[in-house]
Design brief:
Strand content: 25-35%
Structural class: alpha/beta
Strand order of the largest sheet: 1-2-3-4-5-6-7
CATH topology: Metallo-beta-lactamase, Chain A
Distance between the termini: 33 Å
Shape: globular
Protein name: RNZ1 protein
CATH architecture: 4-Layer Sandwich
CATH superfamily: Ribonuclease Z/Hydroxyacylglutathione hydrolase-like
Number of strands: 10
CATH class: Alpha Beta
GO molecular function, one term: 3'-tRNA processing endoribonuclease activity
Helix content: 10-25%
Radius of gyration: 20 Å
Cofactor: Zn(2+)
Organism: Cettia cetti
Number of helices: 5
Keywords: Endonuclease, Hydrolase, Metal-binding, Nuclease, tRNA processing, Zinc
Length: about 210
């Protein structure tokens, strides 16, 4: 399994002419996974050797603007580059509780209709991830009767035994999120490659000495 990382933005707080806000892309098996999506991410993608259309998963560490304000615009750009009659695979978006509401409202208010499906999988934080006065419970948002249905997705709770959140698992790797302490609930992401058994015939080696 080959992995390639491209840094699209490493600046904090706001983008500058020479440095984009937080965003990086992990490329594996022909797919691109985007980690954070600060303002200007889609412009940085255009300047890179990467193809935005290959983005299949997006991971947002926390809900500070310099880490996710570029997301609605990027999704709209991906939609404009999509074939209206095509069958593009859904884009899976992982991030803290509240991200689904932000995306849904941003796209609804701007009358943006995406030509591909997407799902938002929200991580439920614990109160000890940030100062007590900064913690906000977004679990009740957009649950009132009469509100339109937002995008699909899972609500992920902390696994107390693993002290992490299981996000993705396939034949090659496992992706988990773990809690970080910040001014707002924040998460780090770990990609762990699964063991690959060797092809040596151990018994034959022993027989041959």
């Amino acid at each position: 399994m080959s992995l390639e990382i491209t840094f699209l933005g490493t600046g904090s707080a706001f983008p500058s002419p020479a440095r984009g806000a937080s965003a990086l892309v992990l490329r594996r098996e022909g797919q691109c996974w985007l980690f954070d999506c600060g303002e200007g991410t889609q412009t940085q993608l255009m300047r890179s050797h990467l193809r935005a259309a290959r983005i299949s998963k997006i991971f947002i560490t926390h809900l500070h603007g310099d880490h996710f304000f570029g997301l609605p615009g990027l999704l709209c750009t991906l939609s404009m580059q999509s074939d209206p009659g095509g069958s593009r695979a859904p884009v899976d978006i992982f991030g803290p509780l509240g991200l689904r509401s932000f995306l849904w409202r941003s796209l609804e208010l701007s009358h943006s209709q995406l030509l591909f499906p997407y799902a938002v999988h929200e991580l439920v934080p614990t109160p000890d991830q940030c100062p007590a006065e900064e913690f906000k419970d977004f679990s009740g948002w957009d649950t009132a009767e009469g509100l339109p249905q937002g995008p699909p997705g899972r609500v992920l709770h902390l696994d107390p035994e693993e002290d992490s959140y299981l996000l993705v698992e396939d034949e090659q790797l496992v992706v988990r999120a773990f809690r970080l302490f910040h001014r707002v609930p924040s998460f780090g992401f770990v990609l762990e490659e699964k063991p690959r058994p060797g092809k040596l015939d151990v018994q034959k080696l022993k027989d041959l000495g």
